[in-house]
Design goal:
The chain is an alpha/beta fold and 253 residues long. It has 2 domains: 1-86 and 163-175 and 189-253, Rossmann fold (3-Layer(aba) Sandwich), CATH 3.40.50; 88-158, no CATH class. It has helices spanning 47-54, 96-101, 111-124, 140-152, 170-187, 198-204, 235-252, and strands spanning 2-13, 21-32, 36-40, 62-67, 70-71, 81-84, 158-162, 190-195, 207-212, 217-223. Its EC number is 3.6.3.-. Belongs to the ABC transporter superfamily. InterPro entries: AAA+_ATPase, ABC_transporter-like_ATP-bd, ABC_transporter-like_CS, ABC_transporter_ATP-bind, P-loop_NTPase. One of its GO terms (molecular function) is ATP binding.
């Protein structure tokens, strides 16, 4: 079964000069359950808009978005999907545990169950000893782990990520990649993430959707059939990165 399907989705945005901006054109993608899919493209090709349509934050003007086979306008189980943004968006007056708990406060779970989930999820991302730390007391990598825990605490089946590790230094980013892959396998999640980093796409994804810019449209869908974990310095990953860069360069042209 497909977790997400985009059926010839198109999108326009209005502009002050009156001429609509064509952002996405006839995007057609099927994302199976438990897949890890990267949406790759240059700035302005509609990557984040596409992710926002999957999340139900933006409506398509043409076509349809289906979640677990259900059209997004009729989908009701939105708590089975979470979104990790590029900025960590932690509330500075809340501790790590309180920031993670924020994802549960709109639900119907009792206090004891909320606390259990928060403790379990902080432990899952390696922050069990930092539950009472405030954001300003944490490193950039630790803040990203808190943001990841906040996205995971609702126990989603689909996790959407909009370049969440782009501001981390390479060593910490590699650690977060390994953590994300470990947790995705442990929780049997479907991941869909946006990136402009070709190496990140190859290291994480088993399928990469390359977009042409303005309007965004599919240039190529590449399967990455390499075993995990993927060493960025290995010959196989280096070759996959080289090929994907060629595809991306062709899409830009």
């Amino acid at each position: 079964m497909n977790a997400v399907e985009l059926d010839r989705v198109s999108k326009w945005f209005g502009r002050r000069d009156g001429a609509p901006l064509h952002v996405l054109d006839a995007i057609e993608i099927a994302i199976p359950e438990h897949a890890i899919v990267a949406i790759l493209g240059s700035s302005g090709c509609g990557k984040s808009t596409l992710l926002n349509m999957i999340a139900g934050l933006v409506e398509p003007d043409d076509g349809a978005v289906l979640l677990n086979g259900i059209p997004s306008h009729a989908f009701r189980d939105w708590r089975s999907m979470t979104y990790m943004f590029q900025e960590d968006r932690l509330l500075p007056w809340r501790t790590a545990a309180q920031n993670v708990s924020f994802g549960l406060e709109a639900g119907s779970l009792g206090r004891i169950e909320r606390e259990r989930r928060v403790e379990e999820t902080l432990s899952l991302v390696g922050l069990a000893g930092f539950r009472d730390a405030y954001p300003h007391e944490l490193s950039g990598g630790m803040r990203s782990r808190v943001a990841l825990a906040r996205s995971l605490v609702t126990e989603p089946k689909i996790l959407l990520l909009d370049e969440p590790f782009s501001k981390l230094d390479p060593a910490i980013r590699a650690q977060m990649h390994a953590e994300l892959l470990r947790i995705a396998e442990l929780r049997a999640m479907t991941l869909v993430f946006v990136t402009h980093d070709v190496e990140e796409a190859v290291v994480l994804a088993n399928r990469v959707v390359v977009l042409h810019p303005r309007p965004g449209r599919i240039a190529e869908i590449c399967d990455i059939a390499l075993p995990y974990p993927r060493d960025p310095l290995s010959e196989a990953v280096t070759e996959a990165v080289r090929r994907l860069r060629i595809s991306l360069s062709s899409a830009r042209g």
